[in-house]
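Tutorial handout. Part one gives the primary structure; part two gives the three-dimensional structure as tokens.
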Amino acid sequence: LGADMSCLSGAETMVADIKAAIAAKSGKSGADIVYEATGKYTVFQKGLPFLAEHGTLAIYGVPEQPYIINTYAFPKRFNVRTVSPNEAMAMEDACSMLRKEDFPVDLFMTHRWSFDEFPHAMAQVRAGEVVKGMVLMP
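Part two.
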């Protein structure tokens, strides 16, 4: 979808290793965009060291608590953008894109089930085995 690289927030990779990978890939000292979509302050904090000067911190997740921005952890100049976490507002557009196949759903889908497999699908979701799944309606 256009990202040059991504990293898992729970990964034990050292900050220096990730910064070196960013520099090797882009020639920059940090990421142009750090995107936080979990709403978890710990994940938000982990992304801060990777933001490049003049980069943008994009917050989409609905925070569990207010985010405290420690300006010492950021470059001297940066932007903060919030994206409305109100999913109901985005549903009409998202459904329209899916119907028109304007959005590459296959890049996100880990599971697909027939309608008859719905109980099995729910069991897999409850077991934490699914990132994104789709039940195909008859």
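Part three, for discussion. The radius of gyration is 18 Å. The chain is about 30% helix and 20% strand.
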